[in-house]
Automatic annotation (TrEMBL):
InterPro entries: Cholesterol_7-desaturase, Rieske_2Fe-2S, Rieske_2Fe-2S_sf, VanA_C_cat. Keywords: 2Fe-2S, Dioxygenase, Iron, Iron-sulfur, Metal-binding, Oxidoreductase. SUPFAM superfamilies: Bet v1-like (SSF55961), ISP domain (SSF50022). This is Aromatic ring-hydroxylating dioxygenase subunit alpha. Gene3D superfamilies: Rieske [2Fe-2S] iron-sulphur domain.
Length: 374
């Protein structure tokens, strides 16, 4: 649906700062190269504590970070083969969460039915992804597509993000190109204009026209000296729950959110840029160049965003009843998607719960009938 890109006053619905996630999507959990064989780390996706571990042969598993015996965090244990061992009593569990061994249990007895919840997990783009919804639904949901990842014409720069804020606030920052004013001392973009806006129940796409001047203009290759004002189009696509933003073939960023809890969000982003250097020079030095650009160019922008995002969260918590006014229709459209996806999941859960209750009631009726007939 196309939306008129007119800036006008609208009241923000504060419930967007309280909603949870729709878990029936893939969420980033960790960088792949940071999880070594025989290693286990704790991750949290919307208050779901998960023990993420890599087996001796390199396979990654994700199970509930609580031993079914005493509730001890499994991430404090060891990895043995394809199993994870609880540090308290030595119970072992496989990647499906099933108990496979208890060191002091009689060998001739069947192991108790002790099982931890397991999650679907994949590795792609040097990111480990977890599907926190029903594991049987994971195969029907695709991971975000990142075609630049295997294209040697692009320099890939991993960008970690950590925000003490609700994921909706973080998402609004990404959609809000008008906040270029914040980065004025870094010679960021200026004179932003919203050109077009489209939205569905799962996505928002906005096109902005922005201007550059100074060293950023020279860095992106818009001009040789950086003195000229250059205007470009920024396209931002939010497809729940992740982002893709591009700057007219010059840069492309994929921003994947990990909602940890109501006041904590992490990001796993991949920025791709084209730099004016020969491939024979860039390829062997790709990682050092990426680190230099991150630390000396990009981190300053992110630090300023983090300060604003976390400040917004603190102000909201101090007075959740305060009313806020928004004039960017792209932000309002984004909020509708976030709230809508959460409500959709809650409605589906309610229907499933009601169905289970009806099945239980039906089963109880049959049992009572059978008992009466006897």
């Amino acid at each position: 649906m196309e939306i008129t890109p007119t800036l006008k006053s609208q009241t923000v619905q504060n419930r967007v700062r309280e909603v949870g996630i729709n878990p029936n999507y893939w969420y980033p959990a960790a960088w792949s190269d940071q999880l070594k064989p025989n290693q286990v780390i704790p991750v949290v996706i919307w208050n779901m504590a998960i023990a993420l571990y890599r087996s001796e042969n390199g396979q990654v598993y994700a199970i509930e970070d609580a031993c079914p015996h005493k509730g001890i965090p499994l991430h404090k244990g060891d990895v043995t083969g394809d199993n994870i061992t609880c540090p308290y009593h030595g119970w072992q569990f496989n990647g499906d969460g099933e108990c496979t061994s208890i060191p002091y249990f009689p060998k001739d007895q069947k192991l108790p039915c002790a099982k931890a919840l397991s999650y679907a997990v994949r590795e792609k783009y040097n990111i480990i992804w977890i599907f926190p919804g029903a594991i049987e639904d994971a195969e029907n949901v695709e991971l975000p597509s990142v075609p630049e990842y295997d294209d040697q014409n692009w320099l890939a720069i991993p960008i970690p993000g950590h925000f003490q804020a609700h994921f909706s606030i973080c998402n609004e920052n990404t959609m809000d190109v008008f906040h270029g004013y914040l980065h004025k001392n870094l010679q960021g973009w200026f004179n932003p204009e919203l050109m077009s806006l489209q939205a569905t129940e799962t996505s928002v796409e906005a096109e902005y026209r922005v201007s550059y001047q100074g060293w950023m203009s020279k860095f992106f290759g818009f001009s040789d000296t950086g003195n000229e004002v250059t205007t470009r189009t920024v396209t931002i696509r939010y497809k729940y729950p992740h982002y893709h933003s591009s700057l007219e073939g010059v840069s492309s960023i994929y921003l994947m959110r990990q909602p940890v809890g109501i006041q904590l969000t992490k990001s796993f982003s991949l920025l791709f840029i084209k730099i004016r250097l020969p491939q024979w020079f860039v390829k062997p030095l790709q990682k050092p160049i990426a680190k230099i650009i991150w630390w000396f160019v990009l981190k300053s922008f992110l630090d300023q965003d983090v300060e604003m995002i976390e400040s917004e969260q603190r102000t909201y918590l101090a007075n959740p009843q305060r009313r806020y006014v928004e004039i960017n229709p792209a932000i309002i459209a984004l909020q509708r998607v976030i709230v809508g996806q959460y409500e959709k999941f809650m409605q589906q859960s309610k229907k499933l719960s009601n169905g289970n209750n009806e099945n239980y009631a039906s089963s109880s009726t049959v049992v009572k009938s059978n008992l009466s007939s006897t």
